[in-house]
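W.,

You were right to be curious about this one. When I first looked at the sequence I had no strong expectations either way, so I just let the prediction run and decided to look at it fresh. Below is the sequence, 256 residues in total, followed by the output.
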Amino acid sequence: MKTQIIGSTLPVLEVTLEPNDKLVAEAGEFSWMTQTVQMKTTTQTAGAKGLMGVFKRAVGGGGLFMTEYSATGDGAMVAFAAKLPGNIVPVDVAPGREYMIHKHGFVCGTEGIELSAGFQRSLGAGIFGGDGFILQKMGGTSHAFVALGGEIVTYDLAPGQSLSVHPGHVGMFEASVNFDITIMKGFMNAIFGGDGLFVARLTGPGKVWLQSLTMPNLAQAIAPYLPSQGNNTEQNATAGVAGAVAGSIVKGLFSK
């Protein structure tokens, strides 16, 4: 199997499959492929064994269905395009080297990847899109790829060293890192600070990958350019092109 990541702002992962290679991805991640690639949609993959395994994967942010890709001839290639500006990060997963990733981070992985719910905390309606905070655990033995939003900042935390992070910026971290959600310190900070009530606390040892772009921040940034009822004709004409593009982006972000 050969892989290459093309581009920078909206990268594309291109995978060339050899005979007997098998690639596993979320249903709906496929962008394009050659005619020598065979697709198989199934629930019994990515570590799922029986109905309970499928349910645990779905709770972690994955789908009930996954798609397997395999080669039926020479030159078999399948590509996955990023859904928002950012990076696609290759990761080697093995026993003792598991990872926790944000719930929409998994792009694809070789056969042997195991996906399950790693962390779920309900934080009330309207917070983090009303879904609470969910992390997906990535284990097994696989060469996998994870999508992170915007620029990536990494830290190697020493044992006992902690980092407080806005939850939306948590992209991925090694399973050895202790993770918890805490209340923002200070009454005024929590109520009037504008940064939310909750903070993620990451404690070493282990490596963490933080993402600079979050879906809520992107949606908030482009919201003023979306046409709305009540705007006059001139305003709608001015925002027409930008609104159409921004609207498609927002719809794509929240349809997953």
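Here's what jumped out at me. Residues 218-254 form one domain. And, maybe more interesting for your project: The CA atoms of residues 168 and 214 lie 6 Å apart.

Coffee later to discuss?

I.
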